[in-house]
Specification:
The chain is mainly alpha-helical and 198 residues long. It is 69% helix and 3% strand.
Length: 198
Amino acid sequence: FFSDHMAKLAGANDLEKLHSLCAKTYKEQAVWFLNSFWEEFAQKEAETIWNYVGTNAELDLENHADGCGLDEMKAHVFLEKFDETLTVREMRAKLRSTGAIGEAERPKTVPLTHFLLYKYAVDWHTLTDETLQGDNKEEMAKAEKMLEEVAAAVKQSESKAATARKALAEAQSAENAAKERESEAVASENDAVQRENE
């Protein structure tokens, strides 16, 4: 499951390593985060975190699962999907509260890692500690399976939603056609009554 490039982060210091982590895919960011905090709490949060991965991939219309961060607008949609709606200022304040971004920074994208840092109130220096990328392959394989199931469920729900939208459009079209025919029939009947009265 683990590949060699996941065991190390590029960078000479923690901040550079954090930037390196934030450039990884949503899935890779989640795996790193889960590994870093598995014993503390992440084992209980694995399914939720995989849902975050799936939702990020779904909202990232350009890069999908290969993406690493959502633009601010999509980040707000992401938060809304998990009932964590924030204003732009509130979101930036939360991101800054972790210390992972500076007061003057205005990130163009919000990596999954930044959301996880403030969501779980963890230290980003701890997150960049490569020694925490232990050998919990079995648990991670289970989490990977959950991710695949979530992705399949998202795909299935998107398909059902598309089918429902199509059925709704067809029903509305049929209803409009029926109303038009009814209107024509009423007009025709009124014409006939008028001719009869002449």
